[in-house]
Recover the amino acids of this structure.
């Protein structure tokens, strides 16, 4: 069975049953950045219902009215951590599965993205690719060191991780709770290091149909020791109507 079963055969180009709208912009003083921007990166969470074809069409419609360039960041390698936590997979098996899901997403959704070529220049970029960049290790090491020494940042990551596991009915009373929270923090560190790499390459506007806890705090200036590349991001959170 295919990892992702997206069916776009019944969707004509640019058709969608949803509309994407701005939910919030962080930091607030960059609200005008949501009106027009030279380029952006769109984060794709694998296995997330927010990224089915109709909703992706809504997002692309929204972006294409404000920009001509979009990097589609496919969260393949970091998704292995989600698979470890949600399905109990061995790390090696989780990584292989996550990479397959990323490839499958690109293959199946490429026609949908390509249908916007007259409006939007896009390229797929996988997290596994960014993690091979020399700059990634620098940002990753810096973030690991920061989390180990900045108790306020660590507390924020723990709170955000705990809220995720609470939705899965996992509480501090569970034996595996501490391990799960720590592994979730590993996910965020890897993700943030990837975002920092993209910011350094000129992609300062991050589009996502959802909200971010700790990252929003960082761009709002609440964690001044965080890498400047992260503090200078603009996050545009979208919602569907």
């Amino acid at each position: 069975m295919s990892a992702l079963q997206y069916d776009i055969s019944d969707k004509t180009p640019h058709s969608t049953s949803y509309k994407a709208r701005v939910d919030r912009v962080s930091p607030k003083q960059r609200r005008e950045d949501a009106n027009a921007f030279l380029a952006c990166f769109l984060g794709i969470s694998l296995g997330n219902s927010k990224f089915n074809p109709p909703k992706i069409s809504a997002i692309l419609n929204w972006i294409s009215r404000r920009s001509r360039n979009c990097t589609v960041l496919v969260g393949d390698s970091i998704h292995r951590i989600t698979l470890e936590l949600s399905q109990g997979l061995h790390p090696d098996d989780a990584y292989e599965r996550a990479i397959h899901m990323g490839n499958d997403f690109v293959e199946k959704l490429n026609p949908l993205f390509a249908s916007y070529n007259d409006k939007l220049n896009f390229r797929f970029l996988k997290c596994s690719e960014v993690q091979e960049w020399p700059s990634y290790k620098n940002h990753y090491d810096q973030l690991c060191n920061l989390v180990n020494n900045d108790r306020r940042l660590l507390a924020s990551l723990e709170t955000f991780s705990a809220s995720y596991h609470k939705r899965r009915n996992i509480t501090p009373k569970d034996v595996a709770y501490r391990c799960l929270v720590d592994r979730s923090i590993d996910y965020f560190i890897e993700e943030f290091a990837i975002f920092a790499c993209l910011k350094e390459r000129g992609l300062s506007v991050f589009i996502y149909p959802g909200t971010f806890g700790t990252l929003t705090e960082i761009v709002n200036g609440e964690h001044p020791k965080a890498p400047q590349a992260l503090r200078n991001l603009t996050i545009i959170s979208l919602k569907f109507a």
User: Anything to note?
Assistant: Residues 91-114 form the longest helix (24 residues). Residues 1-13 have pLDDT under 50 and may be disordered. Residues 157 and 214 are 6 Å apart (CA to CA).
